[in-house]
Amino acid sequence: MALLTDLQERKARAFTTWADVTCEDALRWEARRAEQAAAATRLQHQQRTGTITGGITDNDRPAVTRLLTVATQWDHTRSVLAHVANHTPLPGPEARLLVLMLTLRTAHTGTGNLVGQDLTALGLTDPQDLVEKLTGCGWLTLPGTAEALLASRPENPTPITVPSLVPHEDKAGPFTFGKKMRPKLSGWAQKVISDKKLRKAKATAATRLLALTLATQSDTPGRLGPDGHGITLNALTGLVPVDAGELQHLVDQLTQADWLTDAALADTHLTGQLTERVLPLTCPLRA
Question: What global pTM score does this model have?
Answer without folding.
Answer: 0.78
